[in-house]
Amino acid sequence: MPPNLSLFIFLLATMAYRSLSVGVNWGTTASHPLPPAKVVELLKSNNITRVKLFDADPLVLEALSGSNLGVTVGIPNGLLRSLNSSKKAAQSWVHDNVTRYVSSGGSRVKIEYVAVGDEPFLQSYGEQFHPFVLGAAINIQTALTQANLDSEVKVVVPCSFDSYLSETSLPSKGHFRADVNRTMIQLLTFLSKHNSPFFATISPFLAFQQNKNISLDFTLFKVYTKAHNDSRRMYKNSFDLNYDILVNALSTVGFPKIGIVVSQIGWPTDGGPNATSHAAETFMKGLMNRLRSKLGTPLRPRDPPVETYIFSLLDEDQRSISTGNFERHWGVFTFDGQAKYRFDFTQGSNSLVNAQNVEYLPSKWCVVNNNRDLSNATASALNACSVADCTALSPGGSCSNISWPGNISYAFNSYYQQRNQSADCCDFGGLGLITTVNPSVDNCRFLVQLNTSLSDTLHPASVSQWITLLVTAILLLLPRFT
């Protein structure tokens, strides 16, 4: 092959892969979050070019300054009411969380989107946020225009996986939920007016959990799985199926051409059946191959997603588990930035790069003292798990096979680590014992937490989730402690 021709082909291939718009969600609902500067290093070392945030944490945005990463900043649902009712509040928010960062010269943050709300139409929220979403979005848009940023920063509203559905699982029957349909039409009119895309979660994992007609092989992009037929349109995987359910829902309300950004998609690795690293690796490799093909779906054959954001970058031990115990294990990386499986965000590599020089607390663990009367150990473990993360003990979890009193030790250690290894947090009425011998068993990892000053108190987002966590933890763990 002539040298010039081979170079031309190489450049074409490089341009094609560079144009693959895949980013990650970076959540911080963790008791000991990895320092923001370390996370930015992790993003860059894995050639991740876009990141979606759930808030506008100043420490995170400062770490992103000068990184040249495309950033989506988020507005929590709790702010929607005030931003809907006050243009001044919207102006203040844009000034404090957008303008000050995009106008900093060489150290600027490349903010591309403002996400108004965090899936405010999630069915479990009821209608509590519905009246405020559109007004908040309009006021934020007006504030961006006044700041001369409207051509640079788009306003979007991330929509949950359950805001659209098909009772028959056929894309041709896809529609929005009745309670959000009117609001969705208003939102789509607003987005179209400002040339903003539609942000939506696609969750093959949850679709598989909730639909007995969808097989695991179909969900994991297995080649020889049985295709689903919808009016002679053949679907070979769950991603295409769910994407076209959304496409049909958009078409039904009059917006067949609006651009779609997959704002969240991923696979958890712990906390329940089929939530494993092996399944996650299979799914993620299948998804990336699907996205790299640049092919559309049966309903949009030439129109693949504008962008796709993997959910999530890191595990978060304070996320709500109301949907399931797997909610704390969506990360491609563990809480400390270590890859869970072989996978890559770019063509040409088959592995991820771990976070480097991570600072941990001392190599100490809290376990049950087998020389004591353990008749009351179950109650102590339940108390520990009402605050700490014990989701790995749930059925199908990585620690579900350790027997009593090993599961008591796991609960004790989770609490001890979350409390920064304070000696009195391994007392449990004399039932706890501090050891320097790692008690991990097979795939069940007894953690040593990160050494970070940010962990002195529980993450604010976890406060509102405490009651749900307590009840769920008791229901989850009671059978295993008997």
Description:
- There is one protein chain.
- By secondary structure, this protein is α/β, with parallel strands linked by helices.
- It is built from 15 helices and 14 strands.
- The protein has an 8-stranded parallel β-sheet. Strands 6-7 form a two-stranded antiparallel ribbon.
- Strand 1, helix 2 and strand 2 (50-53) form a beta-alpha-beta unit.
- Helix 6 (130-146) runs parallel beside helix 7 and helix 12 (377-385) crosses helix 13.
- Mean pLDDT is 90; it is low at 5-18 and 454-482.
List keywords for this structure.
482 residues; alpha/beta; two-stranded antiparallel ribbon; 12% strand; globular; disordered C terminus
Quick structural gist:
Helices cover 34% and strands 12% of the residues. The protein has 482 residues and is an alpha/beta fold. Strands 5-4-3-2-1-12-11-8 form an 8-stranded parallel β-sheet. The chain has a two-stranded antiparallel ribbon with strand order 6-7.
How many distinct beta strands? Answer: 14
Total of helices: 15
Shape: globular
Overall structural class, as computed from helix and strand content, comes to alpha/beta
Order of strands, main sheet, comes to 5-4-3-2-1-12-11-8
Question: How helical, in percent, are the residues?
Answer: 25-40%
Q: What separation lies between the terminal Cα atoms?
A: 71 Å
The percent range for strand residues is 5-15%
Detail the poorly predicted runs.
5-18, 454-482
Q: Radius of gyration, rounded?
A: 23 Å
Reconstruct the topology from this structure.
Layout (H helix, E strand, L loop, with lengths): L2 H16 L3 E5 L9 H10 L4 E4 L4 H7 L5 E6 L4 H6 L1 H16 L7 E7 L13 H17 L7 E3 L7 E2 L9 E2 L4 H13 L4 E4 L2 H7 L5 H4 L8 E3 L2 E3 L2 H15 L7 E6 L11 H16 L14 E4 L54 E4 L8 H9 L20 H13 L13 E4 L24 H4 L2 H12 L5
Parallel strand pairs: 1-2, 1-12, 2-3, 3-4, 4-5, 8-11, 11-12
Antiparallel strand pairs: 6-7, 9-10, 13-14
